[in-house]
Structure formats: C-alpha cells, structure tokens
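Minutes, structural biology subgroup

Action item carried over from last meeting: produce the structure token record for Cytochrome P450 (Streptomyces sp. IMB7-145). EB confirmed the sequence was re-checked against the source entry. Recorded below for completeness.
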Amino acid sequence: MTEAIPDYPFEQPNALEPPREWAKTRATCPVAHVRMPSGDVVGLLTGYEEVRGLLTDPRFSRNLDRKGAARMSTTEDGGTFSRPSQGDADIKEGPGHRRWRRLLSRAFTVKKMEAWRPRIQEMADELMDAMVAEGSPADLRAAVALPLPVRVICALLGAPSEDQDKFARWSETLLTLTRYTQAEVDEAQAEFRAYASDLVERKRARPGDDLLSELTQITDSEDGRLSHDELIATVVGLLLAGHETTSNMILKMMAMLLSERERYETLLADPGLVPGVVEEALRLDALGGVGIPRFITEDTEVSGVPVGAGSTLFVNLHAANRDERKFPDPDRFDPRRENSAQHVAFGAGPHFCVGQTLARVELQVCLATFVRHLPELRLRDAPEDLRMREGISAGGFEDLWVTW
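Output recorded by EB:
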C-alpha cells in the first residue's frame, strides 16, 4: 500500500515550533513528495546541502510560468511564481536577470545600506516612543513591525509612506495560497503596477535623492539602462519584499526572544549580541512560508535520487537551516554560534536576496531599540495562542501583542 502524499505547507505544533515533517524528511527522504494547495504534487527538499546545491545550479528555473510546471496556489494563475509576466520576463532568469542584478546591486552595496542606519534608527526611535506613549499592551505589528520597514523602503525609493496600507493589501493578495480569488489577485496586480508605473514616471521626470531616481538614471556601456517595464517590476518587487518579509521577521524574532524570556534577558545583559541574535532568529525561523521553486529543465539527481526534466521542486530554506549536518544541535538558540550566518534564509546562488544587507540593518536596529527602550518587554499571550497568518505563501503573524 502506497503512503498518502501529505498536504503542504505542513501543520505546525504552534507558531514557534517547526513542523515535525522537516526533520523526518531530512533524515529519510532527500526529495519528499508533497501536495501544494493547488492540488499539484511537487518534490520537496529540506536538507542544507541539497537546498543550497539546487539554488546555486544555474540550469534550473524559478519561473513556473511554463508548460508542465506545478502550480502553487488555488488561483487560476497558480500563484506568484507561476503568474504570467507583464513585460518583465527577461529579468527573472538567465542573461537578463544577471544584467538586472548588476545594475541593481550598485544601489544595494553594504556601504550604501549601512549609511542608512542612522536614519533607520531615527524612524525606530520615533515609532517606539509613540508605542510607549500609547501604553501597554500594544500590537507590535501595527505599532512597529509594519510601519518601520514601510517607512524605510518608501524613503529609499522616494515613495509616500502614507500608502503603507495599500502596499500591505496588494502584497498579501499577490502572495495568496488559498486566501484570495483570481479576480482579487488581478485587481491587486493591476493597481500595484499602475502605482509603480506612475512613481517611475515621476522620478524619471524629476529625479530626487532616492534609490528609484538613481535607478532611472543608471546606465552602463555594456548593460544599458533599466527599461520602464523593468523599473516597474523592480519597484513592485522592492516594495513587496522590502516591507512584507522584514515586517514578518521583526515579529518572528521578537516572538522567539520573548517566548523563552531568558533569551531576551541574555541580550539585555550583553547588547553586543544583537547581530548574533538576528542571525539565529533568521536561521531558526519556523514560519518561513512555502519556500522557493525550481523547474527542472533536464534530468538530474538530488543526493542520488533521480529527478526528471519537467519536474517541479520546492526548497524549504528554513527546514535546511535546521539541518544538524550543518548546524550542530540545530534547534538550540545560540547567538554565539560561529556559523549561524551561513544560513540560507536569504536564499543562495543567482537569486540570492539583493536586499539582505538592508534587512539585516533594519532587524539589528529594531532589536537594539527594543532592548534600549523596553527592558521589561513580555509577550501578552502564550506561544500556543499566537495567531499565524493563514493562506499566504510568506509565513508570519496576524498580530503580536506585548506588555511592559
């Protein structure tokens, strides 16, 4: 009798504990078969070396808008990785993607992102002061975790931060697994692209001191410059990833620290541990979402398991980050762990997150500001009562209430 194919994403014991299937599949099956919300079956990779190997292999595609590729969501278009491109297909992979990365990476150097640290600190202080003034308890998502990344990415791009509710609504809709209909996705995508197009046109006509203005002007003798469609795709991608993933991670990091409060107290005693705490929080994220797909373009093997051309594999970055073969005692939170920064929370290979330095700066600033402002910070609710966001490909919390 064949074993039933499990539904994916897997259920979790609670918001802070990973699904039991992560460890089971790592130990027994380099390529596990799982059923996506769409009903399509894909291969799932959960081992560190297997995940990193697939992500760094340029032969395989993350674009599922192709014949035979699995669909992710219940919408007719199959979800964010299958969604048909609108003039920006060339930047998704191959030479076009490499050209786009070369142009974009000039604006995201470590030096440039670190130069934003004082301004991000000002934003964090302002939000934290306002939250404290409002009094305990407070929802960290509404008070800090959502507005801070939105303010940062809007300042970076030169977009008005008062539009944060629009960004949040559009982003959540586009990342649907089961929550939204195709009509709602189409409406959100059209509105988001129209907003980005208008912003690009305004920055091209009247450049300012912001990243988008810089991107409209960047040119290179070999790479040329970004087209209007490429700039639209860039703005949508940065506004979506620049606030959605960082906002979620702020909440997940604080929940990890406050659910076992000795972790927070260790940080209070030694604030110099902030960078290490951030890396461990990224590594131990149990709410990382569905992962990243690869469409297999030719017959291959994963740890000796044959994978045929035309297959779709998903790599679970956060399951890989708990691989005991890479991280001894992987479920232990250790801000002094020597290799924690070798996690793959930001991906690997040609699609490695271009904004990872900015995300790290935001997380470090936010955490240090909590420690400085609120040494008495505690969770209001028990870990088993924290509300996970359901039906969205990016994992996170609906809210996170704290007291002090």
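Discussion: The mean pLDDT is 92.
Next step: EB to file the record with the rest of the batch.
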